[in-house]
Design goal:
CATH superfamily: Cytochrome P450
Mean pLDDT: 93
Strand order of the largest sheet: 1-2-8-5-3
Strand content: 5-15%
Structural class: alpha+beta
Helix content: 40-55%
Number of strands: 10
Oligomer: single chain
CATH architecture: Orthogonal Bundle
CATH class: Mainly Alpha
Number of helices: 16
Radius of gyration: 21 Å
């Protein structure tokens, strides 16, 4: 492993997070298994190494990845836990923080909710909402794309499945953003505790819904989460588990990441006008590949954590058991060893879906089919309603929320000529 100076590659730096791709290339080429001096964690950036971690359950584990079970939690971690305990519910491990057999057991609850027939049943609703949202501002000739389209589309879809009132969408967005920022690894302790209290507000909003669905189940995703008895456990999810899943795997996993892909896609189209023309020329031919290229180039989940269960070697570097691992999906998705001309947005790219924006192996994103349909109708509505578009002059700074794990544009002001 080469000695890449921390001053050269610092993934905690907000400016690096704004455009991390040069840093990723440096790490892939010079230090594909890089031990961060500040944290001691190992950052993994090559495609084959990332795929090995995701599929090798003997050497890599999820159980200690977020250090939720540390025997001696830090004063900060204790303050967070005590606040949840005193004012709400302490979130349990989520799907991403579990290994089998618990992971398989909990995932079975989601498997039914996201089976193909249920996703297909939502398709008309997603389509209608996409056109409704774009028609709300089409006559204006301009919009703030993130707030007026990219946020409400997936949030309204998943919110309905979670039993939320559509009128509460922006309140729910505030709560999901609190969780989003709390897991960013970029907050001070004071900021984290503010986020915790916003999450607790969400817990008190959803707790009566849980209780109502226990008394009167319906056909929603949330009702399935609340009432399905996990065979291996002999019980359904408890309140602590439900509140954890609501934030991590439904609202953030089911809306935040899709929002960020919808935002990134429009930015990429404006930056690549020839690709926009190509997509317009034959959307039936090119739309599917475009969606996969957006996911590959601007992976909404930039990275996640794992830990080593045993000593293991990657790219010639031995990583000791008990080490924290940061797997960089976004770096792997631009690996020259895997993809030809990886920084290009290429609508003729063969096997375009061969990226890892949704992970791989047992932890492959359950919501990927729904996300792809939401992306499909978002960009299909764009092609059908807009002839040309450009960045609104003087209104964009193209800034991103500071985040070590996810990639989220703050806003995107565009102007356009409607068809």
């Amino acid at each position: 492993m080469s000695d890449t100076p921390e001053a050269q590659v610092n993934l905690f730096d907000a400016e690096t997070q704004r455009c991390p791709y040069d840093a990723y290339k440096t790490l892939r080429d010079e230090a594909p298994v890089y031990q961060c001096p500040a944290t001691g964690m190992y950052v993994i950036t090559r495609f084959d190494d990332v795929r090995q971690i995701l599929t090798d359950t003997e050497h890599f584990t999820n159980e200690t990845a977020y250090l939720t079970d540390a025997t001696e939690p830090s004063p900060r971690a204790l303050a967070v836990r005590n606040t949840f305990q005193e004012e709400g519910w302490v979130p349990a491990k989520t799907l991403n923080g579990r290994d089998d057999p618990d992971h398989k057991a909990v995932r079975s609850v989601f498997n039914d909710a996201f089976r193909p027939k249920k996703i297909e049943a939502l398709d008309d609703e997603v389509r209608d909402l996409a056109y409704q949202l774009i028609d709300d501002f089409i006559d204006d000739g301009h919009c703030e794309w993130v707030k007026q389209f990219a946020i409400p589309l997936p949030l309204l879809i998943i919110g309905k499945q979670m039993g939320a009132n559509p009128d509460d969408i922006w309140q729910i967005k505030e709560w999901t953003e609190a969780f989003f920022h709390r897991i960013s690894l970029m907050q001070s302790e004071e900021e984290e505790l503010i986020s915790v209290r916003k999450e607790i507000e969400a817990q008190h909003y959803f707790q009566p819904i849980f209780e109502r669905l226990r008394e009167n189940p319906d056909d929603s995703l949330l009702s399935a989460l609340v009432n399905t008895v996990i065979e291996e456990w002999g019980r359904p999810l408890n309140d602590n588990e439900l509140h954890a899943e609501m934030m991590a795997d439904t609202f953030v996993g089911g809306s935040e990441t899709t929002t960020n892909a919808i935002s990134a896609g429009v930015k990429l189209l404006i930056e690549n006008p020839l690709v926009w023309e190509q997509l317009q020329s034959d959307p039936d031919r090119y739309l599917k590949v475009f969606i996969e290229e957006v996911l590959r180039l601007e992976s909404p989940v930039q990275s996640l954590m794992r830990a080593t269960a045993k000593d293991v070697e990657l790219s010639g570097v031995t990583i000791p058991a008990g080490s924290l691992i940061n797997i960089r999906f976004a770096a792997a998705n631009r690996d020259e060893r895997r993809f030809d001309n990886p920084d290009a947005l290429d609508l003729d790219r063969p096997r375009a879906g061969g990226h890892m924006a949704f992970g791989s192996g047992k932890h492959h994103c359950l919501g990927a089919p729904l996300a792809r349909r939401e992306l499909h109708w978002s960009f299909k509505a764009l092609v059908d309603r807009i002839d040309s578009m450009w960045f609104a002059e003087g209104k964009n700074d193209f800034s991103y929320h500071p985040h070590y794990l996810l990639r989220a544009m703050k806003s995107l002001h565009i102007e356009f000529k409607a068809k």
